[in-house]
Amino acid sequence: MMLKFMYKQKSKTKNRYSSARNHAINSQPNSKVKLFDRVMKRLSPSWQACLPIACLIVLGWGYAAVAQTPAAGPTTAELKVALDTLWVAIAAFLVFFMNAGFCMLETGFCRQKNAVNVLSKNLIVFALSTVAFWAIGFALMFGDGNDFIGLNGFFLGGTDNSPATADTYKGIFGALNWAGVPLAAKFLFQLVFAGTAATIVSGAVAERIKFIDFLIFSLLLVGIAYPITGHWIWGGGWLADRGFWDFAGCTVVHSVGGWAALMGAAFLGPRLGKYQDKQVVALPGHNMSIATLGCLILWLGWFGFNPGSVMAADPGAISHIALTTNMAAAAGGIAATITAWLYLGKPDLSMIINGILAGLVGITAACAYVNIPSSLLIGFIAGVLVVFSVTFFDKLGIDDPVGATSVHLVCGIWGTLAVGLWSVGPGVYSWYALGPEKGLFAGGGLGQLGVQLLGVVSVGGFTVLLSSIFWLALKATLGIRVSKEEELEGLDIGEHGMEAYSGFLKEGDPTGFSEGQGSIGRL
Q: Of 74, 271, 311, 374, which is least packed with CB atoms within 10 Å of its CB?
């Protein structure tokens, strides 16, 4: 009996515990519902209406995320186009940044009273080049036409299915059907090259040309002269048909700009005070610091100029071309330093700067076609040439304040001929399936060298002819040179009505040099 009673007591206790637990569990949802109900009642009617809608949206998103089929990723061909386009764009940006290098270099090499004028020319010339090349230049250079000139694609219009290449390309810019990037990328890259050609002229005619004449000449050069000769070589014209090769523009860009600069300097005449008592007097630049900075910016930009001309993200080609470019620049700087030291008696900083640039220009045509030792030799010879060229033009009475003619024309010619001397021949490098035949010093004959010489002479002759017509027409109509008073006072005031260094000490003499500098500057 006692055991039975104890069992009943335990059962009652257990049942009471279970009932309390169940009541607590059952009361939790009720309390949460009541809490939710109280919170909802505190909300405005607008918020009460929004909450169910929000719940439906979340549920709908979740369903869509589960139900949809994963999208297919880009194909290998699409990825290649994207990478190639990215590389071409980056290279174009580097070449565009070379405009800053030209600004700094030319301004530093000129006198401070002309700094605003030099900066203005270098800045506006790319804006003008953009419009001229878009409207007419690109069509004349790369549009389908004949062996002499392109006749399609003005204002960048017409049929084009880039980035299709080779036989799959259907458009009016057949000369560029090897580049697997969109047409806009092709145009952008070629535009920065055209702007470079116009900028070369700026330095050679600095400190005495009228601003308006320079602007007009730049439009004519980029819109007409530069694209016509460029069509002969890069546009599938008659020189290309004869096997002329210029990988990144020794002739197409640098020689054309150099020839135009030479004619401009010749028609303008020397600056006042440049020649005294049959002696060549140096007119020192006012800021060699920014001139040196300009040189370094140009050196950097050349890694877009030459490797970017591959127009594809080919790691082997890009790295090889970047290395040959850098080796030539280094050798050019070393050679110019040694030559100036021996020939002029001092390691002239301006010659070191121009020696580096000479090496860069000299390797531009052959950078993809030669080996590393050959690039060193090409750059070294360019560095020697530029020193003697600067003094040679001075003695001829051609006043070039920055040495643009020596760097771009003389070394551009040298670099073009170097293709016919050291090209290793097709098949040696993976990217070199098409290109120049073996050069003379690489076991080939004189054939390639002869074709390169033909290109130098024909492009030079045509550019000299057109440039002379342009300069003479401007001289006869507007007059290309500022007045003597403006030149003595400085083009910053005469042409622009402002000073680059307002409040700073100016040169002691209006001509830009003092008596003490005259004896130091004699060569």
A: 74
Q: HSE (CB half, 13 Å, CA atoms) of 294?
A: 27
Model's pTM, two decimal places?
Answer: 0.84
How many beta carbons lie within 10 A of that of residue 23, not counting itself? 10
Q: In this structure, what token pair is assigned to residue 140?
A: 């004349």
The 3-state DSSP class for residue 510 equals coil
- SS3 state at 440: helix
- Which tokens go with 4? 């039975």
Closest among 101, 495, 33 to 290, alpha carbons compared = 101
pLDDT tens track for 385-432? 999 999 999 999 999 999 999 999 999 999 999 999 999 999 999 999
Sorted by sequence, the CB contacts under 8 Å of residue 137 that are 6+ apart come out as: 194, 222, 223, 224, 226, 227
In sequence order, what are the beta bridge partners of 275? 280
Q: Give strand pairing partners of 522.
A: 281
The gap from C-alpha 425 to its chain's centroid, in whole angstroms, comes to 28
Task: Report how far residue 98's alpha carbon sits from residue 300's, in angstroms, rounded to the nearest whole number.
Answer: 8
Torsion, CA 391, CA 394, CA 398, CA 399, rounded to 10: 110
Q: Which amino acid is at 196?
A: T
Residues 234-255 have pLDDT tens digits of: 999 999 999 999 999 999 999 9
